[in-house]
Structures are given as C-alpha cells and as structure tokens.
Specification:
The protein has 255 residues and is of the alpha+beta class. It is 25% helix and 22% strand. The strands form three sheets. The chain has a five-stranded antiparallel beta sheet with strand order 1-2-3-5-4, with helices on one face. It has a three-stranded antiparallel beta sheet with strand order 6-8-7, with no helix packed on it.
C-alpha cells in the first residue's frame, strides 16, 4: 500500500481553535492529525507584511531542523479547504505538565525552575512567572533568539509526556528589526554551552548551502541576512542576551 503523501492527500477539517488570533483549524490527512492555518485567515499586522505568517512558520521549522533539537514539529505549506496555508503535525501534550507557570511568589521552587518576573494578580497577590530549568527549554530560548521570535507565550510551549518540549506558533519571526518577546528569560547572561554553540555553527554553515536556498522562497533576502547576523552575534557573545530596544521584553498576554 502506498505511503500517505501529506502534501497532496486530502486535508479534512475537524474543528477550529477559536482562541487563536489567526484562523487556525484542526484537521486530518488520512489518520494523521494536523493543524492548518490558511494564509487567507491571517490577520493584518502593522509590522509584518501581509500574507507571510505561514511562510515564516515553515522557515522556523527549517531552522529548527538544522539546529537538530526537535523544537518545531514538522511544518509545511500546502493547499487546503481554505486555500494555501501552513500545516503542522498535531502534538498531544501532557495535560499534567507545564514548562511555564505562574506561582505565588512565596511558593517559588528552590531548584529546577527559573524566575522571570513578579507581578500582581487580579486580587493583588504577588505572583511570579517561572519556567523550568531544562536543557530542552534552554535550546528553545536559543532558537527564539536566532529566529527573532516576537511571540513566545507560555502556551506556545508544549510539554510532552516523554520529556521533549515543542515550540509552536512561529508566525512572528525573522523580522529584520529586533523583536524578541519571550517568557524564557531565566538564563539571561549565562554562557551558552558547547551543544548550543555547535547549533549556531550548523545554522551559519547551512545558510550558505541548502538552508539558504530553502529560506529564499519563504522570507526576504534582508531577513535571511539578519538571521545570519544574529547567529554570528550570538556566537561571538557566547551568552544569552538581555532585552534591548524599545519593544516589550515579554509578549502579552503571557499565556
């Protein structure tokens, strides 16, 4: 029996994620569950060109593949019931795990977690935004710097039962201006480890070969040049950067 072609086989819609800011649908290709975001359903933004978010999601997947850290689930462009769009393999996260959380400030865990900021909840109680201190999440933080992710919310991180942490919703990436907005600031100023530095080298080298050619059909020449510059700058600095510029350091809402 021939294998299923995820690009050409029929894509059937099964539901809609109504909390998403852009049209986002659950679907299936054969028995394979997927997420489908048609380009026609993208909301206009003041700072990103119209009709480019799906392409940026695919570009983020390609960079993730070169890094070799299994951050972004398989993502591709194809036709669907509402026109061309981004399709991504659905990931069933563990409902009992959370890589990012809000906790009462006095309940901040002593080990295994990093605090990002403190604030007040609707009742005036002091709460802390925390994320786990894990190699998988560190690598996602490096990835976000590389792709200039402007929207790393807490619920854009999927905690899987067997340990991996997947990142999703990468439409706001690859801008030529500094746009980094993330909840993963816990390693600010820490040195990058050997594997993280090697990942940066892999991307820099691939930009002069297959990755550069593949990205050319998805993002602009200027955005590819900015990607290369971010890799070089992060490799030279050798540490997690601090917030900079006039943009907020975290997305809103946080989740």
């Amino acid at each position: 029996m021939p294998s299923l072609d995820l690009v050409t086989a029929e894509l059937t819609l099964t539901g809609r994620i109504t909390t998403a800011s852009n049209a986002t649908f659950l679907g299936s290709i054969g028995k394979v569950p997927v997420v489908y975001k048609p380009i026609a359903g993208e909301s206009p933004l003041w700072d990103f060109p119209d009709g480019t978010l799906a392409h940026r999601e695919v570009a983020a997947y390609l960079v993730s593949q070169v890094l070799g850290w299994d951050i972004v689930p398989r993502t591709w462009l194809r036709e669907g019931p509402l026109g061309e769009g981004m399709v991504q393999l659905w990931q069933e996260q563990d409902p009992d795990q959370s890589a990012v959380n809000l906790v009462a400030a006095e309940d901040m865990p002593e080990t295994g977690w990093k605090q990002v900021l403190e604030g007040q909840d609707e009742n005036g109680n002091i709460v802390a935004l925390v994320h786990e201190d894990s190699p998988a999440l560190r690598r996602m933080a490096v990835f976000d710097v590389v792709v200039n992710n402007a929207d790393r919310k807490g619920n854009h991180i999927l905690a899987m039962t067997d340990g991996p942490r997947h990142g999703v919703d990468h439409g706001l990436t690859f801008h030529t201006d500094h746009k980094l907005r993330t909840v993963l600031w816990g390693w600010l100023g820490d040195d990058l480890d050997a594997e993280e530095l090697e990942g940066l080298d892999r991307v820099s080298e691939a930009l002069n070969a297959g990755l550069g050619r593949d990205l050319a059909g998805l993002i602009s020449t200027q955005e590819i040049a900015s990607l290369a510059a971010r890799c070089s700058r992060l490799r030279l600095d050798g540490r997690f950067p601090a917030p900079s510029g006039g943009m907020p350091a975290v997305p809103w809402p946080l989740f």
